[in-house]
From TrEMBL, chains A, B:
Its EC number is 2.7.11.33, 2.7.4.28. It comes from Rhodanobacter humi. This is Putative phosphoenolpyruvate synthase regulatory protein. Keywords: Kinase, Nucleotide-binding, Pyruvate, Serine/threonine-protein kinase, Transferase. Belongs to the pyruvate, phosphate/water dikinase regulatory protein family. PSRP subfamily. Pfam families: Kinase-PPPase. PANTHER family: PYRUVATE, PHOSPHATE DIKINASE REGULATORY PROTEIN 1, CHLOROPLASTIC (PTHR31756:SF3). The lineage of its organism: Bacteria, Pseudomonadati, Pseudomonadota, Gammaproteobacteria, Lysobacterales. Bifunctional serine/threonine kinase and phosphorylase involved in the regulation of the phosphoenolpyruvate synthase (PEPS) by catalyzing its phosphorylation/dephosphorylation. ADP binds at residues 151-158. NCBIfam families: PRK05339.1.
Length: 271, 271
């Protein structure tokens, strides 16, 4: 079974898509063909979106599903005329919140991904620059790091650092364990002062070998033997040094970041 | 007025937080003190969360608000016993979808940020590596780029490229206009074959000067005069070359990315 879904928003569409994906993931037997229609903020754009949905409906014979975060009721009505199943993301929550807070919702709606707070923006950008300049041991000053990811090459440190910086403004540095560290089974001296900020990333050897093979085909670096050795030594080193760690093989970047924050008791909310 | 909000999830909490922030942003007069409680997936953790919420309630005298994406009804009931206002993110949508699709939702719930699809993961990682190695004109092969951001130094190109890569698997390169380009008012030769993939970022001169001043205090690079000149020339160059552009001063990274995708007709959905 396949059904078409439109995420419609008067802004970026990120909220519609995030909640829509979460809801749809609960129907595992159905394949969803997903489309994002952002910035639908006037009648002409709503009419164009409606036409597209209607055309799809007529062609496929299946009723499309619309996940909607548009605020303007008039625009919602235009899209509803397409005959699609309308799921309005905000409607169920506004009433209870208005009652609880004793106030009506204000005009500025659905701008959560549009508004810019310069301080927060700066925190994100500064953290991103920090992650870029403290990636793979290029820069050695870890004093400013909120946390430092440790692991063998290609265990997922860089994307995790960038994600934490871009979304949470967390300054995460990144130290790739060298063959020397792994042979000695010793933390390098410059990491030792920051032991309570270290977190290890591990990965299954077969998966690591695949990733490295893509990167440097046929190299010793990509052999399963080398990967296995590095990972075993890294594991030993982390246990000896008391560094908490996470196997990233089956875990998304979002979940890795959440688990690291949970481990450090960081409750920072997203920007 | 200030109210405390808990985002509770049996997984990362990203969905709860995303929709929660969108809903709360509609109540502009209220300050919300936000806490994320992820990975609440057994009774003991739910009890601990409940205790925390109750303690908060007793201390502040104000009823806390819970934005909940836990799937297990038993866990929801434990948290509801705290007396908080429970906003269940999925409940309102499951009924209508079950009716529409003629199928019950499956057991695997709320894993949208936890599941890993290796192909998609690889696309994200490869795009991130692409963005890192094609940042600020370091690497010159633009043939593989989905799109190329053009702008003066510190106009927001790098974080935007990284965001598009991490979230959408879009391979975005990044070309900083040099003084030479700006004097000649000419696109560099190596960008010309890819004119239809170029997108310009601009920014207000005062804001650019602030950002640059943070970076290199007291430099000529950070003077308002230099910023103004570069931005005027960049604007001219983009208009002459027919490159679409966006002023990023008041726009979040999420919105910049969405607008660029809309401009190119890219409807790629998030990972």
């Amino acid at each position: 079974m396949q059904r078409t879904v439109f995420f419609i928003s008067d802004s970026t569409g990120i909220t519609a898509e995030t909640i829509g994906n979460s809801i749809l993931a609960q129907f595992e037997g159905v394949r969803f063909d997903k489309h994002r229609l952002p910035f639908i903020d006037d009648a002409a754009k709503a009419e164009a979106a409606t036409l597209r949905i209607k055309t799809h409906y007529a062609k496929s014979g299946e009723r499309p599903i619309v996940v909607n975060t548009m605020a303007d009721r008039a625009l919602c009505d235009i899209v509803a005329a397409s005959g699609a199943l309308m799921l309005d993301v905000f409607a169920p929550f506004i009433g209870p919140l208005e009652a609880e807070l004793g106030t009506k919702r204000s005009g500025a709606v659905n701008r959560s991904h549009g508004l810019v707070d310069f301080d927060k923006y700066e925190a994100r950008i500064n953290a991103t620059n920090y992650a870029l300049s403290h990636d793979d041991g290029i820069d050695v000053d870890y004093a400013q790091a909120d946390l430092i990811l440790v692991g063998v090459s290609r265990s997922g440190k860089t994307p995790t650092c960038l994600y934490m910086a871009l979304h949470y403004g967390v300054s995460a540095a990144n130290y790739p364990l060298t063959d020397e560290d792994l042979e000695k089974l010793e933390l390098p001296a410059r990491l030792r002062p920051y032991r309570d900020r270290l977190f290890g990333l591990t990965i299954e050897p077969v998966r690591l070998a695949q990733i490295r093979e893509q990167r440097r085909a046929g190299s010793r670096y990509a052999t399963i033997k080398q990967c296995r050795w590095e990972l075993e030594q890294a594991d030993r080193l982390m246990r000896q040094a008391g560094i908490p760690s996470l196997n990233t093989t089956h875990v998304s970047i979002e979940e890795i970041a959440s688990k690291i924050f949970a481990s450090f008791g960081i409750e920072r909310t997203m920007y």
